[in-house]
């Protein structure tokens, strides 16, 4: 449209008419005279508007979903990462607590026996199926470790060092069939020799065939000359079966070791022997027997019961 005087007058007129219609619509409220025209326009243009909206909304929702899915993926990934880190931390804490408990227990045993020990960690195990029960520890010649040193943990005798490298050493476990150690019975001082039997309990041959031994008696190491390969006083195990004496020169007993040879982690190599035999000092306190409860039944005669010598 050309910008002329007539066109400007027409624009002003249209604006005036629009303001007049707005004023009439507002003042009329629900009874507005233009309400019919508005409804007619809604009838004509409503379906078109809905169609456009139905076509556009999925696109908008899809775009929003893609945008939000990226955020949700990032949040899920972060949560999974945090969860894995927490599990690793908890696992590490549990293992550290277990190792600290083992170390504290071993230090207590070393203190009671006055053993100078070098702490070590089991880093490999031997092949049990090859009839060789051994473990490899992470200390060696550079740490002052030598062949035929006693190895223990917080429970008792583990074995002896057989091979030494610069930074590692091999320990022959006490349950190996080639392992033998001199033992002494707690209190009675009966001497014997304990031998490993793999998965089975230790077999101990007592020198005194008439020794009075009972289930529950405990054994410790007797010690070797110059304290190699064994220092004295290290707990060995508890008697759980005694073979009847059949006139042999020795008597056989079977001993459950204090040490669990399938659960070895923190060990100690005795690098300095005690100045004096600790005797039974390293043995843990004996468990107190559980008292057997006794029940006493008291019978109270009733008032209707007949008295002796009288008939009811």
Explained architecture:
This protein is α+β, with helices and mostly antiparallel strands and 312 residues long. The protein contains two helices and twelve strands; from the N terminus they run ααββββββββββββ. Strands 1-2-5-4-3-12 form a six-stranded antiparallel beta barrel.
Keywords:
alpha+beta, elongated, 33% helix, six-stranded antiparallel beta barrel, 312 residues, single chain, 12 strands, 24% strand
Give the SSE map:
Layout: H1 5-28, H2 35-113, E1 116-125, E2 134-137, E3 150-152, E4 157-164, E5 169-173, E6 180-185, E7 191-197, E8 200-206, E9 218-221, E10 235-242, E11 251-257, E12 266-272
Antiparallel strand pairs: 1-2, 1-12, 2-5, 3-4, 3-12, 4-5, 6-7, 6-9, 7-8, 8-11, 9-10, 10-11
In short:
The chain is α+β, with helices and mostly antiparallel strands. Helix content is about 35%, strand content about 25%.
Task: Tell me the Rg in angstroms.
Answer: 46 Å
Low-confidence stretches: none
Strand adjacency order, main sheet: 1-2-5-4-3-12
- How many strand units? 12
Using the alpha-carbon principal axes, give the shape: elongated
| Mean model confidence by pLDDT | 79
Q: Termini separation (Å)?
A: 137 Å
Helical residues, percent: 25-40%
Structural class: alpha+beta
In what range is the share of β-strand residues? 15-25%
Helix count, DSSP H or I runs of 4 or more residues: 2
SSE pattern, N- to C-terminal: HHEEEEEEEEEEEE
Instruction: Report the biggest beta sheet as strand number plus sense, adding barrel if it closes.
Output: 6 strands, antiparallel, barrel
């Amino acid at each position: 449209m050309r910008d002329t005087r007539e066109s400007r007058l027409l624009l002003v007129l249209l604006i005036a008419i629009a303001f007049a219609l707005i004023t009439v619509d507002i003042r009329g409220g629900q009874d507005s005279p233009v309400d019919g025209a508005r409804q007619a326009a809604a009838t004509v243009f409503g379906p078109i508007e809905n169609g456009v909206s139905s076509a556009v909304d999925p696109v908008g929702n899809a775009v929003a979903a893609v945008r939000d899915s990226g955020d949700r993926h990032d949040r899920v990934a972060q949560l999974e990462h945090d969860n894995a880190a927490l599990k690793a931390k908890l696992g590490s804490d549990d293992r550290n607590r277990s190792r600290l408990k083992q170390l504290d227990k071993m230090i207590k045993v070393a203190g009671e026996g006055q053993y100078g020990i070098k702490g070590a960690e089991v880093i490999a195990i031997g092949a049990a199926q090859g009839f060789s029960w051994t473990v490899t520890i992470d200390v060696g010649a550079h740490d002052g470790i030598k062949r035929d040193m006693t190895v223990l943990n917080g429970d008792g005798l583990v074995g002896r060092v057989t091979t030494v490298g610069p930074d590692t050493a091999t320990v022959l476990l006490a349950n190996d069939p080639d392992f033998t150690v001199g033992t002494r019975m707690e209190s009675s001082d009966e001497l014997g020799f304990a031998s490993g039997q793999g998965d089975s309990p230790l077999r101990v041959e007592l020198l005194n065939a008439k020794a009075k031994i009972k289930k529950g008696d405990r054994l410790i190491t007797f010690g070797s000359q110059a304290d190699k390969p064994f220092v004295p006083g290290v707990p060995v195990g508890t008697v759980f079966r005694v073979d009847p004496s059949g006139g042999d020169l020795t008597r056989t007993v079977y001993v459950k070791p204090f040490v669990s040879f399938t659960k070895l982690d923190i060990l100690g190599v005795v690098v300095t022997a005690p100045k004096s035999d600790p005797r039974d000092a390293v043995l843990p306190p004996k468990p107190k027997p559980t008292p057997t409860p006794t029940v006493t039944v008291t019978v109270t005669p009733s008032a209707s019961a007949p008295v002796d010598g009288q008939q009811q």
